[in-house]
């Protein structure tokens, strides 16, 4: 018989913990930079909110101004991105996933995450808000947080307790946690999207860094949900009579979200032989101006509701005070796709929530007598899950955002079903875009004319 395992000696273990200065230095550095990552995302949030407020002031004073302002500024953003920070284009989540790829060694990670890209991402995304483009700040927050967190490797002892991959995961997930004010959502995002190895998922220091980064947002904004003070927006349980409406919303969101993800993959890959893809490849800045004009036209046609992240519209739906056109979800769908296609730094999390909420609201109005807030919450979780194919992250984010704990099982079921339907339509969005990011490591062709 084998000898029984020896239990660790308490005092010997305690002594080892107390006298290992490398361990405590690494912990202090990681947690300090996690706080910095969270606070950086808070500053980024302020920048985006201020920029969009300025756009709204101009747009409300001169309804026609986006037709001139948005195309010009979109072209400027794309030129600046391509000239000074090509790694800042797009969401930011694919860049972090690419940096985590096994074939990407330490000297190459600066193509995807760095302090320079963090600062560039903050400025360029805020400019996108100033332009009125349909974009979110949550995806960019992942790259911003990862860049801050990854920079702390210079201060860690050589034999540290956390790897470069661990730092990237902690920073990226802390970015999501701080952006949505949902620390639990940040942890689930790290598990579903960023972690690929079991040891990365179970590192207690990484999880502590994620929670601390998210708590920085709580310390600034208070214990409130994404849409305001907890309890201000509540959703009812999905009772038996709501089963079929909820299922309808989930199926529609699953198909629409899968189509949206597929459009993004095909558009950004540039492999389609259509005129638009050829123009984007040959004249990227001019193409960006055309995209900006298209977004401006959609914005004017929707009375300004599709501009920005969609936060105001979604909040209005949940409050029951929004009276925008029933075509909002279609206009927002197109505007977000075109914005991303333009090549600006832009996330799709918040616009996806707005689109899903619009689908839920429209179906509730069509069916009559159905509680709209419940279907709006289900639509938000379902569409976000369909786009990202990260159902657990999606339902937790929505649950914490709208104080929907009574709807937890329904949100989970909707997210899982919508994600499964999406997989029948599209490949995983962020994995496919991460593969496109890895192509940047191949020697580039001669630069194209603007």
Provide the gyration radius in Å.
22 Å
CATH class identity of the largest domain: Mainly Alpha
CATH superfamily of the largest domain: Clc chloride channel
Report strand order across the widest sheet.
1-2
pLDDT < 50 runs, ≥5 residues: 198-202, 228-233, 444-450
What order do the SSEs take from the amino end to the carboxyl end, as H and E?
A: HHHHHHHHHHEEHHHHHHHHHH
How many β-strand stretches? Answer: 2
On the 0 to 100 scale, the average pLDDT is 84
What does this structure look like?
Helices cover 69% and strands 1% of the residues. Mean pLDDT is 84; it is low at 198-202, 228-233 and 444-450. The protein starts with 9 loop residues before the first helix and ends in a 12-residue tail after the last helix. By secondary structure, it is mainly alpha-helical. It folds into 2 domains: 14-222, Clc chloride channel (Orthogonal Bundle); 240-441, Orthogonal Bundle (Clc chloride channel), CATH 1.10.3080. The protein has a two-stranded antiparallel sheet. The protein has 20 helices and 2 strands.
């Amino acid at each position: 018989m084998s000898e029984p395992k020896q239990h660790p000696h308490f005092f010997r273990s305690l002594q080892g913990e107390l006298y290992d200065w490398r361990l405590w230095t690494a912990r202090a550095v990681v947690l300090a930079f996690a706080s910095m990552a969270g606070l950086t995302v808070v500053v980024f949030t302020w920048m985006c909110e201020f920029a969009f407020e300025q756009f709204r002031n101009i747009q409300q004073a001169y309804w026609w101004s986006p037709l001139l302002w948005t195309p010009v500024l979109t072209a400027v953003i794309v030129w600046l991105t391509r000239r000074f920070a090509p790694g800042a284009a797009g969401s930011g989540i694919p860049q972090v996933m690419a940096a985590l790829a096994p074939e990407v060694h330490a000297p190459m990670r600066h193509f995807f995450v760095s302090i320079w890209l963090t600062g560039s991402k903050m400025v360029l995304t805020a400019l996108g808000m100033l332009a009125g483009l349909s974009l979110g700040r949550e995806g960019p927050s992942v790259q911003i947080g990862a860049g801050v967190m990854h920079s702390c490797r210079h201060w860690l002892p050589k034999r540290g307790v956390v790897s470069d991959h661990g730092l990237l995961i902690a920073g990226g997930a802390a970015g999501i946690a701080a952006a949505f004010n949902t620390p639990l959502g940040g942890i689930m995002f790290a598990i579903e999207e960023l972690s690929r190895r079991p040891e990365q998922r179970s590192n207690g220091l990484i999880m502590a860094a994620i929670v601390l980064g998210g708590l920085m947002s709580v310390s600034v904004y208070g214990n409130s949900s994404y849409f305001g003070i907890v309890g201000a927006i509540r959703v009812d349980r999905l009772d038996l009579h709501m089963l079929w409406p909820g299922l309808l919303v989930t199926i529609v969101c699953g198909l629409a979200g899968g189509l949206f993800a597929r459009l993004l993959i095909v558009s950004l890959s540039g492999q389609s032989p259509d005129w638009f893809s050829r123009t984007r490849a040959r004249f990227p800045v001019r193409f960006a101006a055309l995209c900006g004009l298209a977004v401006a036209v959609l914005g004017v046609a929707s009375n300004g509701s599709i501009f920005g992240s969609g936060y105001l519209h979604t909040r209005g739906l949940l409050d029951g005070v929004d009276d925008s056109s029933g075509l909002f979800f279609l206009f927002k769908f197109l505007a977000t796709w075109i914005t991303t296609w333009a090549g600006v730094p832009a996330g799709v999390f918040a616009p996806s929530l707005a689109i899903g909420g619009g689908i839920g609201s429209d179906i509730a109005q069509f069916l009559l007598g159905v509680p709209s807030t419940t279907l709006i919450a289900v639509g938000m979780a379902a569409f976000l899950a369909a786009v990202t194919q990260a159902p657990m992250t999606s339902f937790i984010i929505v649950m914490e955002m709208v104080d929907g704990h009574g709807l937890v099982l329904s949100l989970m079921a909707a997210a899982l079903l919508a994600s499964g339907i999406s997989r029948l339509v599209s490949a995983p969005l962020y994995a496919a875009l991460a593969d496109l990011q890895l192509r940047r490591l191949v020697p580039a062709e001669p630069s194209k004319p603007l």
